[in-house]
Design brief:
Blueprint: H1 2-7, H2 12-93, H3 97-166
Helix pairs in contact: 2-3
């Protein structure tokens, strides 16, 4: 009966026109909010893409640096082992005093080389721990960024739903 009352020329027709204007205004506001939301989403996506690029770049630099350091340490350790083995062989073969003196000097060198090799091994272990920590932090940053992205979308969806309910475009139930 209300629809009939609105179309028969009674005062309800002006109410209908007012309602239509209000609805058009609400639709314009809703469209403006949607456009704003799209722009905000695009800005956030751009920011997220930049941050992920920076994280990837930092990760690449870290991996490269750790790889070079690991290679250098492994080479140093290999040299130290060769020196130690050569000194050990000379010590076994030496029966003369000169050989024994040389063996003692080599033993001193070996001890110094062994200390350096131990320091290299310790540095390598430290770098591996740092690499593991850096990888863990990179995963956490990525997860945090992804979480921000998903929570931002959820907030926008709730806002849009609330606006639609508030404007009467959909039922609250």
């Amino acid at each position: 009966p209300r629809a009939i009352a609105m179309t028969d020329g009674s005062p309800s027709t002006s109410a209908n026109a007012t309602w239509m204007v209000a609805r058009a205004t609400q639709l314009q506001r809703l469209e403006a909010l949607r456009e704003w939301s799209e722009r905000s989403g695009a800005r956030f996506a751009d920011m997220l893409e930049r941050e992920q690029g920076e994280i990837a770049e930092q990760d690449t630099r870290l991996r490269t640096s750790l790889g070079r350091e690991q290679t250098r340490l492994e080479q140093t350790c290999t040299k130290q082992r060769r020196f130690r083995e050569a000194a050990a062989q000379r010590a076994q073969l030496g029966s003369l005093d000169g050989t024994m003196l040389e063996a003692r000097a080599d033993a001193v060198k070996i001890a110094a080389f062994q200390e350096r090799a131990n320091a290299c091994d310790a540095k390598l272990a430290t770098l591996r721990r740092q690499q593991a920590i850096a990888e863990k932090q990179a995963r956490r940053r990525w997860l945090a960024t992804a979480e921000k992205a998903s929570s931002g979308l959820a907030v926008r969806a709730r806002l849009l739903t609330w606006l639609m309910v508030a404007t009467g475009m959909v039922d609250a139930g």
